[in-house]
Design a protein that fits this description.
There is one protein chain. With 513 residues, the chain is mainly α. It is 68% helix and 0% strand. The longest helix is centred in the last third of the chain and has 40 residues. The N terminus and C terminus are likely disordered.
Length: 513
């Protein structure tokens, strides 16, 4: 009894004097959730992608147009080019679950504001009421899926690891829910990444809680919402396959997981399974190879090296597709091998980071917003890798700065960056120095110089005009700096994942001795 009492008193003392821990854990989580929601509401009051920019506008109009199409024509024709569905004007280019989501939101908009989703006449529709309803669809999706998954992950993660420290749970949840990049893209620029990323977090939490079948359903749903979720597929496959090999009946386990995945895909794709041509029509929309290996100034390998090697001029698209596929496979292979050899929960989180970074750096047709995918596992690893998480978050923001400037989101950008720093450095909550090894000597100097350079770039981009001969000079420099940091993180994270295996063996040897 005395031991139990002392343990309780110790746990209670951890939260003393901590502003995030007034009251129970449930109340703390509630406060963080409400605050995160309020931040999203404030950001949503700002501009969005393509506001007032006729004739094609931007991502806001794309999402609204998908609602218009899914509401007014049959599901079988959503991906077909026709007189009522001109695919050259923001045609659906995401998997069927996105289309179903668009249809559900279209019903909501049609009930309150029919003009905003009327066929043909609503093209380019912009109104205060329409904007309010559109923003509400993102907010509700975020709360129902991303918020719920984040809370589920934090509870499972700290329960599995035995780290039952309230302050770390609150700190981690706040960082997940108040990540500046996702808020700016979904509630500023305007997208629904919260759905696919939320489903992915749910799948990760299900794996950590040993519910692999549930994880397969959730990840299959995420894949069917946005095809870029495939960035995580090698990590999920290698981890689950590694576990299957250690199962009492490996073949039966593989069959169980496979049937769940296939069953989920059949349910989602059912309206298009009536013919092979219908499936091909949808698939052709999901892989836009005609757009080229990259667009704009994305901070990945192909765009960055194009400063020296003009990939698009030197090689045809089929060759570039092969180069991209080969480089991506080489990038994910070490991480996959490690998880097949020695699957572990922590190794799985590193594998998610390594796999998504490899896809971001080397895959075909990457967008600036795709950095949200590697940022997700980095956020889940925030307690284990606080410096990596902080560094990747900052340079992910920097890499999207030109895009967010075009959307007139500079003020929310600065505000959310400051908020992120304040939450990260909350006294008494953030990881101790024992966990966060501070860089010293040359490393520290290099990091300071890189940060100063990035700060200078922010000011230059906003205040100065580039030379007429090089109109995208500033974008190119931001891209080069960001890409160099992403490559550094990828190398470190791969090495760290392989080091986990050796540390596991060392612990086993100690136990034997």
């Amino acid at each position: 009894m005395e031991k139990k009492k002392s343990k309780k008193s110790t746990e209670g003392s951890n939260g003393d004097g901590c502003w995030l821990l007034n009251g129970s854990t449930r109340l703390t989580f509630g406060c963080i959730t409400v605050f995160a929601l309020l931040v999203r509401v404030i950001v949503s009051l700002n501009s969005y992608s393509g506001a007032g920019d006729a004739p094609k506008f931007g991502d806001y109009e794309a999402q609204r147009h998908w609602m218009e199409i899914t509401l007014n024509i049959p599901a079988k024709k959503w991906y077909q080019n026709s007189t009522v569905n001109d695919l050259t004007y923001w045609g659906l280019d995401y998997p069927p679950l996105t289309a179903y989501q668009s249809y559900a939101h279209a019903l909501f908009l049609h009930y309150f504001h029919p003009d905003s989703v009327a066929l043909f006449t609503s093209r380019g529709h912009e109104s205060p009421k329409g904007k309010l309803l559109m923003r509400w669809t993102v907010l509700s999706s975020d709360v129902l899926i991303f918020f719920a998954a984040a809370i589920y992950f934090v509870i499972v993660y700290y329960d599995n690891g035995g780290k039952n420290k309230q302050q770390h749970m609150a700190w981690h949840l706040a960082l997940i829910l108040l990540g500046p990049c996702l808020i700016l893209i979904d509630h500023g620029h305007f997208q629904y990444n919260c759905i696919s990323l939320g489903l992915t977090i749910g799948a990760v939490a299900a794996i950590l809680s040993k519910n692999e079948l549930v994880a397969c359903v959730l990840f299959s749903l995420a894949l069917n919402h946005k095809q870029m979720t495939a960035y995580f597929a090698p990590a999920f496959f290698s981890h689950l396959f590694g576990k299957c090999l250690r199962h009492r009946n490996p073949l039966l386990r593989v069959l169980q997981l496979g049937l769940v995945v296939v069953g989920t895909f059949i349910l989602i794709w059912w309206p298009y399974l009536y013919s092979v041509d219908a499936v091909k029509e949808v698939l052709s929309r999901l892989a836009p190879f005609e757009r080229g290996i990259y667009e704009d100034y994305v901070a990945n390998f192909w765009c960055t090296t194009s400063v020296l090697i003009k990939w698009k001029r030197l090689f045809p698209t089929p060759s570039l597709r092969l180069f991209s596929l080969g480089a991506t496979l080489l990038g994910v292979l070490p991480s996959m091998v490690q998880q097949i050899k020695a699957p572990s929960d922590l190794g799985f989180l590193y594998a998610l980071l390594n796999s998504s970074l490899s896809f971001y750096l080397f895959s075909f047709q990457v967008h600036e917003k795709s950095i949200l995918l590697p940022l997700l596992p980095a956020t889940l690893l925030a307690l284990e890798e606080p410096l990596l998480f902080r560094w990747l978050t900052y340079f992910a923001l920097l890499s999207m700065f030109p895009l967010l400037c075009r959307d007139r989101l500079i003020l929310p950008y600065v505000a959310l960056l400051i908020l992120f720093v304040l939450i990260y450095y909350v006294p008494g909550i953030r990881p101790t120095k024992k966990r966060e090894s501070s860089p010293t000597g040359l490393k520290k100097l290099a990091m300071i110089l890189v940060l100063l350079c990035s700060f200078f770039l922010h000011i230059v981009y906003v205040t100065l005009r580039p030379p007429q001969k090089y109109p995208f000079l500033f974008e190119a420099v931001i891209m080069l700096l960001s890409c160099s940091q992403f490559v550094t993180i990828a190398v470190y994270s791969n090495l760290k994942q392989w080091m986990l295996e050796s540390s596991i063996w060392m612990e086993k040897e100690k136990k034997v001795q």
